[in-house]
Amino acid sequence: MRVTVKFFGFPSAFGRDNAKTFALPEGATIAQLLAVIKAEAGPDLDAFAQKSSVVVNQARAERDTVLHDGDEVMLMFTLGGG
Q1: Rounded to whole angstroms, what are the CA distances from 59 to 10, 72, 75, 77, 82?
Q2: Domains held by the chain: number
Q3: What CATH number is associated with residue 38?
Q4: What is the pLDDT of residues 14-73, one digit of tens each?
Q5: Closest CA to 56 of 31, 73, 70
Q6: Domain for residue 6, yes or no?
Q7: pTM listed for this prediction
């Protein structure tokens, strides 16, 4: 299956694009998607991904959410402050 990931607030790990399509096995979860992103982009991006909010098809999602073909995933880096 293929899912499209849009990155918000991330360093540019995939060139100038802020979106990338990933091929995943059927039944893959967001956690598995994050592992694929880490493998392709390296550990620096992984630090951002682990601290991000995840939205799938415009609904908040958890790391154990199962993805489906054609899903749109948004990874939004969470900023802290006070």
Answers
A1: 20, 10, 12, 16, 27
A2: 1
A3: 3.10.20.30
A4: 656 688 899 999 999 999 999 998 888 777 676 777 778 899 999 999 999 999 999 999
A5: 73
A6: yes
A7: 0.83
